[in-house]
Amino acid sequence: MNEQKITLTADRIQAEYEKGVQYNTGIGLYENVKQCENFVEGKQWEGLKSKNLRPITMNVLDPIVHYKVAQIVSNDVDQDIEPFLPDEQAEYAAKILEQSIDRVVERTKLKSKHHMVLRDACVDGDAALYFYFDASKQSGLGGVQGEICAEQAMNTNILFGNPANSNVQEQPYLIIVRRRPVSEIRKDAKRLGCAEWESIEGDSDGLYKGDDQQTDSDNLGNELVRFWKSEDGRVHYCRSCGRVMIEQDVATEMTLYPVAYMSWKPRKNCYHGVMEIKPLINTQIEINKQWTALAIMLRNNAIPKLVYNRNKFPDGWNPDATSIGVTGDVKDALTGVAGSMPIPTEATGITSTMTDALKSVAGANDAALGNVKNPENSSAIVAVQTANAAPLALTKIAYYQFVEDYERVLIDMMHAYYGMRQVKITDEATDPETGDTQEQTRVEMFDFGAIPVEALDLNIHIGEASYWSRILQVSTLNNLQTAGVMPNMVEFLSRMPEGSVKDQEGLVEAAKRVQQQASMQQALQGGLTNG
Q1: What is the distance between the alpha carbons of residues 370 and 360, in angstroms, rounded to a whole number?
Q2: For 452-465, what is each residue's pLDDT tens digit?
Q3: Which is higher by pLDDT, 67 or 313?
Q4: 184-193, 198-207, 352-361 — which is least confidently predicted?
Q5: pLDDT in tens, 468-508
Q6: Which end of the chain, N or C, is less surrounded by CB atoms within 10 Å?
Q7: 516: Cα separation from own chain's centroid
Q8: Of 213, 207, 297, 286, which Cα lies nearest the Cα of 44?
């Protein structure tokens, strides 16, 4: 969807921003995100003022979020780029792109951001990654300046031109809201030649996470980065803050918006997804109330209390005193103990049942977490966990699509910004004399502007790295060896999952030597017997 040629001003961008904020406010996004964030962080008694009451927080939501996120990121994600049509030049470019993406992912720490992206998607409903090219950043390559940078954005900080469509690349425009110190915004504006840079001011409208923790929120301002596509399909952007235009229309060679966006659960006709935590909050509140009530009952009724004659002890009872002064006859200074009131088992049972029911509804019950009766039976653990993780399959697909989307964006940005650069190519070569295949690395110059982007087909392959699958493999190998199916120790060690034992290659070589020595001894004994 291309946008007609328009004259962009700071006032127009501000009006589009306010329109997007109005839409988000209408669906309760800001308040719901704030509430969900507070409850997951453990701030579940916000606004309560009491001198005597010490409320208890039994945070069930936080482990539920961590469990669900861990279920999705337990597998590592890697890319495999294949040309749409078999062509030697396209295959060569695909190999370079694979290694170039790995380099960007490593330098921007993208894989470590995956956990936070999924965590935000689970709690807030959506999450986004925003990419930009920083021309001033050192690339680490000789004679080349500029690197691709990645920035995580909350769903409250991204506004779609068409909020009824969740497809990023079909938007008429996008606005990224960056909460930045006013001093940095002014510095950028001055560097870019903005005459009104001194008039840039901060603002605090309470819409964004962290604003209420700021001691001086006027130090932060909303930098609005607006993206749109021209009639030829190229991406343009501009930047503003309030009524000041920081950077005018900048035409790029990109064909994709530099944004990857995912929803935990999609919502019909809305670019914001369903918040996983929101329906569980009322149950969490009741659990906290019940545990607090039980604690008050325990403090007031369950502990026996000393009863004494106030006339005999005018100064009160001091339990730590080494000697006690009594008025009148010491024999009459009798005390007693008031009996305690037992806590009804139904009270604790209801609370525990409600907690277990909440975990079960959220899909994070004991079976899903691996708390089965027979922990030695790893096959049962895997089967139970696989069955409980099935409801997350759709979210996993959305996550894999999210990774594919941002890798397409990285390729598009390399094509637009990199130009001629040194690349390190690692491939396999065959020795003509021995026929052995060896891995070799070489450095070449490559023109990223000549990448046949349209001719590449990007596939995402998932590598197994889960904890229980590793245990299952080891258990299966042990069973095979015990049953005599795999009596050879070399075969057993070579099939162990990588990283299961220290110096696995050394152990395999040692097992081979032992096997050779045993074979030589058998051969020697056989020769002596025959002789």
Answers
A1: 13
A2: 776 667 666 654 44
A3: 67
A4: 352-361
A5: 355 556 767 777 777 777 777 877 777 777 666 777 777 87
A6: C
A7: 50
A8: 286
SS (H, E, C) 401-416: HHHHHHHHHHHHHHHH
149/104 Cα distance (integer angstroms): 8
Nearest 5°: phi and psi at 435?
Answer: 85, 0
- Three-class SS state of 366: coil
Q: For residue range 234-275, what is the model confidence (pLDDT) as tens digits?
A: 999 999 998 899 999 999 999 999 999 999 999 999 999 999
Tokens representing 439? 């891995």
Name the pairing type of β-strands 235-241 and 220-229: antiparallel
Q: Which residues of 79-102 are buried (b: 16+ CB within 10 A; e: fewer)?
A: bebebeeeeeebeebbebbbebbe
Residue count of the chain, please give it: 531
For 495, what's the count of Cα atoms within 13 Å in the CB-facing half-sphere? Answer: 16
Alpha carbon 335 to its chain centroid, in Å, reads 61
β-strand pairing of 456-463 with 76-83: antiparallel
- In the chain, the amino acid numbered 303 is I
203, 204, 209, 214 alpha-carbon torsion, rounded to 10°: 100
This prediction's pTM: 0.74
Which tokens go with 148? Answer: 């691709």
- 226 with 13: CB under 8 angstroms? yes
The CA-to-CA distance between both ends of the chain, in Å, stands at 90
**Residue 530 pLDDT > 70, yes or no?**
no
**DSSP bridge partners of 221:** 180
Which one is predicted more confidently, 297 or 278?
278
Tokens of 46: 């916000």
Cβ within 8 Å of residue 210, ≥6 positions away: 179
Q: Is 233 helix (H, G, I), strand (E, B) or coil?
A: coil
Q: List the one residue out of 28, 55, 240 whose CA is nearest residue 125.
A: 28
Span 372-414, pLDDT tens digits: 555 555 554 455 455 555 678 888 888 988 998 999 999 999 9
